[in-house]
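Entry 14. Ran structure prediction on the chain below.
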Amino acid sequence: MTLYISALNLDARAHRRLNITDNYSLHRVVYSLFDDVRSEQQKQRSVASGIQWVDKGGDMRGRRILIMADRAPGEPEAGELETKILSETFLTHPYYRFSICLNPTRRNKHTGKQIPVIGREAICAWFCQRAAGWGFDVQPGQVQTESINVQQMKIAAGKIITLQQATLSGRLTVTHPEIFKNSFMHGIGRGRAFGCGLLQIVPLPEITFFE
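Output, structure tokens:
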């Protein structure tokens, strides 16, 4: 599968023109760049859109959105878009430096509802415990929770969605390459439509003491 990596840069004028106020409006802007290839039945079954994105920060004066998709984006209504194709060898390395914005939740045993994981140490532990299922290993001393924030988004009919986001970074070791590749290509965890789950990675060199 060909993957397209894009950076959307939004200045103050683009912010105003696109009416960006929260993560839901960013979601709208990102998805407007791509043809919707899913049928209504697929949407109802929550079939993945093939689009991942993360807000790399900023404010109304300037913001950068990183996007990965299984198809090329169109021209943005406002802002500047740069797109590259991911190298075929990018996912063949054993070690990576990573950063990821996640929606850490666990299921309440009594109600069956998803509840947020609270606290930096608890979020790190939650991530490390689940890493094997995503195809990699992360040791507690090799990951940190950089930030935690709560997003409130107003969607159709005045409904408000509350989403906790935690940004983690560190070093990972690939343990199951195919599972890892799938996690990278499709995202990790919940809230992917609203800027969570995109695994941002940079290959690290293998450490060799003797040739």
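The longest helix spans residues 120-130. Will compare against last week's run tomorrow.
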